[in-house]
Specification:
295 residues; BirA Bifunctional Protein, domain 2; seven-stranded mixed sheet; five-stranded antiparallel sheet; 8 helices; elongated
Length: 295
């Protein structure tokens, strides 16, 4: 059995931790290694966690998130996509699905999401879907949660590009997909952690010299996501978005309902979408589910 206190100390340490300070036994070490953790055990400097194995993700997250998102974890070595699992498995509000690799990862409007095995945090969080939690609000909450989680782990500000992209230094770091079925919403998040994406418009934490274990990132992200989805007010979410939006005041072209519209981004309505002043036209609200940013 993994000791979550010991694992958390290793995950959050800036460097090697003296073994005596951890109070760790050989059995503890054996349990970590059996779970797939990669460790550097230096006789002088102490113990350093190189990566947390998938075998310890369930115990670690479920014990730390027993009363919120993550109270039930499903972890896969490989699957088509975590969104597919969320649809097919008997999961309820509060469940989180993660995988090391997706063979059929997707984003909004059928776009593909590709990441090498072990290089990204790929997850779906399942929450109750009601009239008070429309898709646009869930998309906003997820974008804010990703931005806040990343910023808490580094000293760089993250940007949000409505409706579903999170950027770092102007390049795409993460994407969000929200789907609904059977009174549940499935919040899919793909966040590039270590690999340098082939797409020149994308980036990863590692490519920006930010090194963090995926399990630690998941732990921090679930705390933010639980708060932003369940407890944050519209005003709080708007403050987060306004401070990070890279579109506000910009002239953009969007595709909505088979039409192209050009105008200036004014603001955001958390429940209904982007507010845009159409050129030679009215102020229009654009829902995330049916709108795609072109320019």
């Amino acid at each position: 059995m993994i000791d979550p206190v010991v694992l958390n100390r290793l995950l959050t340490a800036d460097g090697p931790v003296p073994t005596h300070a951890l109070g760790i036994t050989r059995d503890d070490l054996a349990a970590l290694e059996a779970a797939g953790c990669r460790l550097d055990d230096h006789p002088q400097h102490g113990l350093r966690l190189l990566s947390a194995g998938l075998g310890c993700w369930v115990d670690y997250i479920e014990q730390r998130h027993a009363d919120r998102l993550g109270r039930r974890m499903l972890v896969f070595r490989e699957t088509t996509s975590t969104q597919d699992v969320a649809r097919q498995a008997q999961v309820a509000d509060g469940a989180v699905i993660t995988t090391d690799h997706q063979t059929g990862g997707r984003g909004r409007l059928g776009r593909r999401w590709v990441a090498p095995p072990g290089a990204a945090l790929l997850m779906t969080a399942v929450v109750r879907h009601t009239e008070s939690t429309p898709v646009d609000r869930l998309m906003l909450a997820a974008a804010c949660a990703v931005a806040e989680a990343v910023e808490s782990l580094c000293e760089q500000q993250v940007q949000i590009r409505w409706p579903n992209d999170v950027l770092l230094n102007g390049r795409k770091l993460a994407g969000i997909l929200v789907e609904t079925a059977n009174n549940l919403a499935m919040i899919g998040i793909g966040l590039n952690v270590s690999a340098h994406p082939a797409d020149l418009n994308a980036t990863s934490l590692g490519a920006e010299s930010i090194h963090v274990d995926r399990l630690h990132l998941l732990d921090v992200l679930l705390d933010r996501l639980d708060f932003d989805v369940r407890h944050a007010t519209d005003a709080q979410l708007l403050r987060c978005w306004r401070a990070r939006s890279c579109l506000t005041g910009q002239r953009v072209t969007v595709s909505v309902d088979s039409r192209q519209l050009t105008g200036r981004v004014i603001d955001l309505d958390p429940a209904h979408g982007l507010l845009m002043q159409i050129e030679q036209g009215p102020i229009t609200t654009l829902p995330a589910a049916t709108t795609s940013l072109i320019v």
